[in-house]
Write the structure tokens for this entry.
Amino acid sequence: MSDTGAERPASHRMRWVKGGLTLFFLILIPALLYLQLRNTDWQEVSTALRDYPWWILLAGVGIALLSYLNYSCYDLLGRYYTGHRLPVRQVIPLVFVCYAFNLNLNALVGGVALRYRLYTRLGLDIPTITRIFSLSIITNWLGYLWLGGTVFALGMVRLPEGWNIGTTSLRLIGVAMMLVALTYLLACAFSPRRRWHIRGHSIELPHWRLALVQAAVGAFNWSLMALLIWLLLPEGVFYPTVLGILMISSIAGAIAHIPAGLGVLETIFLTLLQGQVAKSALLAALIGYRAIYFLLPLCIALTVYLVLEKRAKAMRSANV
């Protein structure tokens, strides 16, 4: 009983800490963004948006579509990993909906709630969904660790003077990230223990070949997201730099718990690319990125979600 009583205050304090950090970032990020944007000529931003050639926007939509299809492969790997038999034609639109809601709202809505609801309506049990979800999370962050670690370790991102984490420290962080990713791959290849039971759920290490595919698919998705931003930026910006900044902004957005990382992405890009790209062109690129990668898929996902809800019973019956 004493252990349980000790855990409750600790859990309560942790909730307060998380809530306090979220509130802190909700105040800090808008303040920093205001400082970055207070002298912005929005007429120039509007002109930059209107001046995008149609083929650039079309290519951007193509990259976003490829990224969403690639992200769907996370759950297709989960299909192989768990051995469930839902058809691929049902899995891909389901993951598309979850990813769009995840990006625009938060992971609890898109990554967890919708995934569990839609999968259960199609006939999967909770333990299987949990294993799919766990593999998807690992795939995403394994790709992040490999790709971001490489970019940081090679010094492709130059931090402004005065930042507490200097360029050398960022390189060391990159090496540490790669070591963590390597540890996972080695565990998948050589660990004698393959299965753990946590709170009634079974977690099993995948085969090392599947782990390699996870790393490749996860890294490819991050590279596509950066490619879209790079495409919308003026010529002359180094692609690995854009990739590295996206990596920094993504982890900052995850820490801040702000839906869609709104303001976090913009603040970090404005800070790290100042002097390299005109502010109006950079803002135009980030607005275009959010419109193509976040808002357009969300509009499509809303329609797809309604269709999935309406047809879930029929699709489940067809799977029996």
User: Anything to note?
Assistant: The radius of gyration is 21 Å. The chain has one domain: 61-79+87-319.
